[in-house]
Amino acid sequence: MQTFLKKRIEIMVEAPLVARVLALLDERNVTGYTVLPAIAGRGRGGSWHRDGLVGQAGAVVQIVSIVDESRVDEVLEPLFALVSRQIGIVSVCDVQVIRRDHF
Amino acid sequence: MQTFLKKRIEIMVEAPLVARVLALLDERNVTGYTVLPAIAGRGRGGSWHRDGLVGQAGAVVQIVSIVDESRVDEVLEPLFALVSRQIGIVSVCDVQVIRRDHF
Amino acid sequence: MQTFLKKRIEIMVEAPLVARVLALLDERNVTGYTVLPAIAGRGRGGSWHRDGLVGQAGAVVQIVSIVDESRVDEVLEPLFALVSRQIGIVSVCDVQVIRRDHF
Amino acid sequence: MIDLAVSNLLSPMVLFFVLGLSASLARSDLSIPEAIAKGMALYLMMAIGFKGGAGVAVHGIDSRLVYSLLAGLILSASIPIIAFCILSRATELSRVDAAAVAAHYGSISIVTFLAAMQALDSAGLRYESYMVAVAAAMEAPAIIVALWLARNGGKQPGPGTIHEVALNGSIVVLVGSFAIGGISGADGLKSIASFIVDPFKGVLCLFLLDMGVIAGRGLRDGRRTLSRAVVAFGIYMPLIGAALGMVAARIVGLSPGGTALMMTLCASASYIAVPAALRLALPEAKPSIYLPLSLGVTFPFNMTIGVPLYLFVASMFR
Amino acid sequence: MIDLAVSNLLSPMVLFFVLGLSASLARSDLSIPEAIAKGMALYLMMAIGFKGGAGVAVHGIDSRLVYSLLAGLILSASIPIIAFCILSRATELSRVDAAAVAAHYGSISIVTFLAAMQALDSAGLRYESYMVAVAAAMEAPAIIVALWLARNGGKQPGPGTIHEVALNGSIVVLVGSFAIGGISGADGLKSIASFIVDPFKGVLCLFLLDMGVIAGRGLRDGRRTLSRAVVAFGIYMPLIGAALGMVAARIVGLSPGGTALMMTLCASASYIAVPAALRLALPEAKPSIYLPLSLGVTFPFNMTIGVPLYLFVASMFR
Amino acid sequence: MIDLAVSNLLSPMVLFFVLGLSASLARSDLSIPEAIAKGMALYLMMAIGFKGGAGVAVHGIDSRLVYSLLAGLILSASIPIIAFCILSRATELSRVDAAAVAAHYGSISIVTFLAAMQALDSAGLRYESYMVAVAAAMEAPAIIVALWLARNGGKQPGPGTIHEVALNGSIVVLVGSFAIGGISGADGLKSIASFIVDPFKGVLCLFLLDMGVIAGRGLRDGRRTLSRAVVAFGIYMPLIGAALGMVAARIVGLSPGGTALMMTLCASASYIAVPAALRLALPEAKPSIYLPLSLGVTFPFNMTIGVPLYLFVASMFR
Ligand SMILES: Nc1ncnc2c1ncn2[C@@H]1O[C@H](COP(=O)(O)O)[C@@H](O)[C@H]1O
Ligand SMILES: Nc1ncnc2c1ncn2[C@@H]1O[C@H](COP(=O)(O)O)[C@@H](O)[C@H]1O
Ligand SMILES: Nc1ncnc2c1ncn2[C@@H]1O[C@H](COP(=O)(O)O)[C@@H](O)[C@H]1O
Ligand code: NA
Ligand code: NA
Ligand code: NA
């Protein structure tokens, strides 16, 4: 089956920042993204857990966006600027997709 | 440590379709899969959010299945047929696993 | 934009075991990890679903940790020992990150 | 009339709905966790089902019960045809989209029904307990008719779709609780009244706060995707439905309260069960049309203007 | 007897359980969000713990309290041994699987206990308030005995496992609320009665709807993985447990109501705390055997036939 | 005094808080699903808002309402400045961290406020209904002042941040319910009293169980990250705040109950709204300092020692 090479950008970012990251992706005309919840984690700044009434501070959310290779840099630069002062991890990997037109 | 090359299939599909996708994977004797919830997203058809009482329409769910390379095509063809009329994104990437027998 | 090669370790493990896996990662001084919930799945041991009052037995949780290549083996060996008697799948893939110092 | 409308508009129920709607339009981050909203929906289904069943057990089965069910089925099957004809003429929607929208208006919104019941209680108007069963009966038929309209003789919905709609969780709870209420009767009701009767209205207020937020989101989406003609349809179609419901209720001989409920059922549009079914059975239809229309236009219209209007009209048959 | 059984079977509580079970078997998508189910479970634990503690505060500490706790501990430790012997002889299960199943039957199901308490309330039978504490005491010992059976002198459960079981969230809430109820007494109970007493029965109904769905899922899984001999064990073992519980209750001198509760505790099998503990301490045992057996066979059996039977037997000691 | 303190410490409310705290410190896995905790928080906001509004509708608008709001605003803006000065001198915190901590103490903890209201009810002390509005008014100003302190003339918080804080979901529900309560008045309150009044205290108990768990987690984190000087600040700062609140309440002429509430508001520190706002507006400040301090030190201190102390002091003005 024919597949096409794209990039999967995975952003783990602290919850209060999510709205800004999504606004950034919208601005850059990324075709789409999906936000996944996380329940716990640990980083250099300590550990967190989502049970109970907790505010957004500390908690992390995962954003996945599959984009064309040609768009990657255009998205990473401003993401880096945004995330550098905040809590956030951005990783990119190669994926094969079956519908070219979608991205 | 010795690892083995497998393929990680990631399917993001609208929630009402999940049962059909899983039935398809079962039919093709995929050894296993895991379904992860999503909380929000945006695509060409607009954005959605899972808070509040929302129906399944619009919401997306992520299905992850790690399979042997030899099985990939066998799974992708019918998945493509199923997803092509619906909302769904299928991506495949290479992964190394530590237990060969499991997949 | 300059990026750096790291490894993304993805662990799907039965819920009762999560605390032990995280303790192991802490012990090995992994810089961070994030735990994502799953809602359903199927493997050789049957299928499960998180709706309703269900205990932890059977349910699976996903742990994602991005680490430096040099640390991978150090983490995989004990993970393998831990997971081999239990329910768990460990996979590793290449990713590019934008902040080198973080891992 | 004005009294009724004002007292309905100033009831805590409607005020909480408006609060949610305004918060959502002002882009507040107010939101109710999905699990809580689903839990409240289950509770409301269980409560009205049980109360309806217990009511039937107490008052006995009415010969009108069967006629009302029949009327509901016929209305739910014929309203989509009317809606489809109107949409084909008055709007630019494609055949498939028109059929999909039509399905929503033939089916019902249980929350609107709840709001009408609560308004009747406040106004001291009585209604037939079995109207809950009529509501359940009206959920599904519209979908089948709409699929037939969309395909116009093409391939029919598989038995899978019908099974999925008929055994939909919320219908099972509603019908099941109705049956349990019928078996348990007044004693059963008394034994769990402090769970399903006393806090009911308060839970409904909190639930409507959530529905207001959701409706506001629908309204915002709708601004971008709906044409004027389609928005107008979302406002006059409930009135047409209500008129048909009124005629049917008079023929069956329902009480004024029952008439108001039948009008509300016909006027309301589904936004949970039908969209999910259509994504499977009619994936070509665009959710970005039918969801905002039903949720962002018709639902708020009914909550604020529709329901007091139907009550007023029905109360003239006293 | 037949009266008691019928009135129990037709109580809203059991009917909601059956509704959930049937919906699940008919493959309806009815489901209760995990968070809601956990919230209700917490509520039920808090409520029965508090009421039990307040009851003890009012009626004073009974010398039988200590004997009952002791009896519970001994039963919870010895029932697994009996179950293990039977399973080794009557079924094809491996040593490890037999030990794992045995652990479930020595421990208890708090939901079955709740259903029995509610049935006693409906039948107007009184019981000792401290039976809640007995229930808590019976959660853990069976696990330790079963691990010893599985290993037969091999490596013992680490202190980690025991700590995890003993400080398990639901035991903490149950025992903690019992203590708080004991400290707060009748005044404390009065001040929060409209939360933990009045809506209790209704919440239990909704909770049992969920448990029915889960049990139905267990039953479906069990059809594939359980042999006849194992299924049979899931039905006669509760009766053996109940008989032992009855003897112990008579020796301790419990009231008829307390006897029925002790029988229910011994007859019921755990499906939350024990499975989770065993996944850590005995990972070789197959969850696909012990989960469906406890949840899909024994739990529905106790809910429908077991509990009214134990009540009937216990009520003969009046 | 000792009577009041003991009866407060032995109230179910505080006991459930202590249960959660102990369970968390003993590393039990007790936890309440996030959705349930958020649902309860919404419920509590809705209930106190509505009751406050209905209270104002019944008793009429007091000239002191405006003065109290003003006093609240001034206190919320000036306490951070005092806190900042103390922190700069008495602790090793950086300018930015000191400003961030100061923001928390200028803002309020609504749960502490609820606990104080409940303690007043138990003690039979009355308070002004509009204190709820004062609480809402005190949420935000401290943040703006703290940002100014951190930047000291640098770039100011964008309108985005202010919008986010002011339209924060919980403030919207609190203020909105207050308005709805004011419009609906006594009749509205009566119609939903069995939801928002009767079970209130019980829900608060369950909620405080959760808050105890969270506070325990904060306490555990704090052990590692907080210096002694900072922990001490978390205990004496509430007393300074309470003293200021007392003076302001006397000037405005609040009742003893209202005085106790004003003291509690000034003494309490935010741990939800402010941390979230600061992550956006002041990301350089370390959450690992302000979260454990507010949640793990000041909150438990107020719940156990602070609130009864403020009540005692305020009750001397009778
Ligand atoms: N290497 C990593 N892999 C996966 N998630 C991480 C990693 N590092 C940090 N995180 C997540 O990001 C959050 C904040 O990290 P930090 O800024 O290092 O405290 C953590 O609590 C984790 O949820
Ligand atoms: N490029 C993408 N990367 C990740 N998720 C996507 C992407 N495109 C679409 N999605 C998800 O799929 C849903 C439907 O997409 P669409 O069919 O484009 O409207 C969106 O709401 C997203 O949750
Ligand atoms: N190949 C796979 N890909 C993704 N998830 C899997 C896979 N195999 C198993 N799982 C997950 O691991 C759980 C236990 O698998 P098993 O031990 O094979 O029964 C399943 O219920 C799935 O959630
Ligand atoms: Na309709
Ligand atoms: Na037992
Ligand atoms: Na304060």
Relevant terms:
heterohexamer, A: 103 residues, alpha+beta, Alpha-Beta Plaits, 4-stranded antiparallel sheet, two-stranded antiparallel ribbon, 2 helices, 40% strand, elongated, D: 318 residues, mainly alpha, Na+/H+ antiporter like fold, globular, binds adenosine monophosphate, binds sodium ion
List the helices and strands and how they pair.
The complex is a heterohexamer, with three copies of chain A (103 residues) and three copies of chain D (318 residues).
Chain A lengths: L3 E11 L3 H10 L5 E4 L3 E4 L2 E4 L10 E8 L4 H13 L3 E10 L6
Antiparallel strand pairs in A: 1-5, 1-6, 2-5, 3-4
Helix pairs in contact in A: 1-2
Chain D lengths: L1 H8 L2 H14 L8 H26 L3 H28 L4 H12 L3 H14 L7 H7 L3 H11 L7 H8 L2 H28 L3 H26 L2 H25 L3 H12 L5 H9 L5 H29 L3
Bound molecules: adenosine monophosphate (3 copies) and sodium ion (NA) (3 copies).
Largest sheet of chain A: 4 strands, antiparallel
Fraction of residues in β-strands of chain D: under 5%
User: What number of domains of chain A?
Assistant: 1
Largest interface here, residues on each chain?
Answer: D-E, 31 and 30 residues
Which band does the percent of strand residues of chain A land in?
A: 35-45%
What oligomerization state is this entry in? heterohexamer
- Rg over C-alpha atoms of chain D, rounded to the nearest angstrom: 18 Å
- The pLDDT mean of chain D sits at 92
CATH fold node name of chain D: Na+/H+ antiporter like fold
Q: What structural category arises from helix and sheet content of chain D?
A: mainly alpha
Shape of chain A: elongated
Number of helices of chain D: 15
Q: What percent of the residues of chain D sit in helical stretches (DSSP H or I)?
A: over 70%
What number of structural domains do the residues of chain D give? 1
Radius of gyration of chain A: 15 Å
The unique ligands bound to this protein are: adenosine monophosphate, sodium ion
Q: What is the CATH third-level topology name of chain A? A: Alpha-Beta Plaits
**Poorly predicted parts of chain D:** none
Give, in order, the helices and strands of chain D.
HHHHHHHHHHHHHHH
Order of helices and strands of chain A: EHEEEEHE
| Low-confidence residue ranges of chain A | none
